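Internal QA ticket QA-208
Title: Verify multi-chain structure generation after dependency bump
Assignee: T.L.

Test input:
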Amino acid sequence: MINREAGVFQTSYSSDMALYTLPLAKITVWVTLGLLLILPLPLMLGNNEHAMSIVNTIALAAIGAIGLNILNGYTGQISLGQGAFMAVGGYTAAIVSSRYGMPFWFGILAGGGMAALVGTLFGIPSLRIKGLYLAIATLAAQLIIEWTINHVSWIGGGAQSSIYVDTPTFLGLAFNNEFRRYYLILVFFLLAYFAAQNLVRSRVGRAFIAIRDRDVAAEIIGVNIFKYKLLAFAVSSFYAGVAGALWTYYLRIANYENFTLGVSIEYLTMIIIGGLGSVLGSVLGAIFIKLLPIVLDLSVIRIAKGVFGIPYESVANFLANFQLFIFGALIILFLIAEPEGLARLWENVKRYFRLWPYAY
Amino acid sequence: MGLRKWLVGCLVLACVIGVGNMVPAVADEIVIGGQCDRTGPTKPVGIQICPGVLDYVKLVNKQGGVKGHTLRYIEVEHGYKVDRGVEAYERLKREGAVALLDYGTPIVYALTPRHMEDKIPGLTPGFGRADSTDGERYPYIFPMAASYWSQIGAAMQYLKDKGGTKKGSKIAYLFYDNPAGREPLAIFNRICEMEGYECRDFAVPAPGVEMASQVLDITRRMRADWVVGHLFGNAPSVSIKELKKNGFPLDKVLSLVWGAGEEDMRTAGWDTAQGYLGMQFAGVGRDFPVIQDIIKMYQAENQEVPEYVGWVYYNRGVLVAALMVEAIRLAIEQEGLPVTGEKVKKGFETIKDFTLGGFLPPLTVVASDHEGGGWVRIYQTKGEKLVPFTDWFRGYREIVLDEVKKAAKAEEKK
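Actual output:
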């Protein structure tokens, strides 16, 4: 069977260490990769930039969510500052590319690096405080960074606190439509995804998990808590910075109103819905949070009109609020059905088919 | 087996949504689109502006459309979120919209490059950057109403002409501490320096519902002669209450355009708000032919006329729709069919002395000035109504335009 360990023998250390060992898993990954690569083609034929823009938004959010999950889900440090770290990345990218004429890839790296630096700084309180108290300390990071961007005109770019950047170009090719921007984002998304998948099963990842499960015990078995907690903040903020920088190049403006506290909370929701301590879960959570409101918006209005024959004008306010109601209800429903998130739901599906057709 | 139920449930949901999404397209209609915020932080504004747009488009269609073509207006709710705003823009673009209403300052910022790329004109009345007045830098962005810079210029002009300010007068600028709130500061400070006023600015941090210390400072320590307010959301009503509590005469308070809606007066209490001055870029009330037509349309359908018809934000919605319709009409007249974004842009740029029966200032838009002159009008709170207090006017135009030019130069240098 291709979906079970039974009968699959590894004959070298490297194949034993591979990220995916089951034949079915390998096939799935390659097929998914292929599909992601050709995804824009049918959309391009239909000239559907709308659908592409939704995919782009989800991919961007997924990068940030993976980063937050490394900190929250794997290391157990609650952070409410994800939005702010994204802002650091976004503004750094905007400053280096609009004022110093750097190419976009440098801006993305610089954004990630600067966010890692700032994130590490704001991670220092985590060495002394834990849990909800740390959440409040990172909330301070959110407020301080927002205030700084708003009031230091060298960073914020003046009264409007926003900096325009040029459309990024690579080897003479401008990323000036949604399809091209998709490939730009896809590269970074895949890098982020596989880097995280490998990180969490490495020595560093195991140290993160040990800290999450019980930091005293981790310290006793020799995990350097000081180093690894700050490292978790650095990695997580690096991801946030890259996501923020990409978001800036995607919109071609850095504006702190894209990275407010509400955004930080949204990212926290993504990883809770998706599954704490799961890289795939972060992606699923990003899809859930970003896609569902749009699907609801597209469908609720049309169902109201098509099925019940109600014109939009007369119930617009109700429908707008009704969507939020359904969205909230679905979040609760999914959390009740599987508190460990969408990733666990996917695990259950896999487990079911592993034993299929026998129930045990 | 719970899992099986789940899968079936998901499948059913997918089918329902798939069926719901099949909507036939009708040919020979002109599509325009707009974003709306009926649920987000600016909901009190959204639930009035959006019906205003919808009603006016409906009225135009009832009267035979634009040059015989039916208008299809698509509204997309975005809840004031930037990513939803981008989605809304792409959705409307896909539907073939030839003119768009962008809603919300951060969203206007984010969509500006897209408008240039796709050559679809975007209306940003009262939102967005003041320097997008410069139509040569932002060919597809149309503020079409007084920008924050023009508003503060007009406010200072009013203070000088009718408010009795002279050298040494004390003026306080009370603003919401966000980019939109800070935008007028540059002009405010320049005029203060030029006229020799003693000016101070007072920032109100988000969410803007706590300003006791700022108001105390203004009324007791600074002892301001005038307060110019630039607040949003719930903040204006709080400022009215606080200023009143401290005994500051409200007819010495002049609010810029987002701080003087009926809902603000109601929240603060109409009795409290008596005398409060608010700036407007569209007419307020029902005494305009266009609003009367809408009321007649409601009556013809035996529907109750909603309370908000004729209110500040509703009328701004009508203004937006009227400008879109006028631009499309001009585009068809001058450039012919089919209507495209580029043609509508030219249509906007040929709007001349458009007033809609006194509803709008004498609006004239040219390629270099997408603001239409920067006209405003002041209304005062009297009884349970906002009544006209001045005629359409503008002020310190040269300073405003100079600042626009400076912004363009700074962008070039960067």
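Spot checks passed. Chain A touches chain B through 52 residues (CB under 8 Å).
Status: verified.
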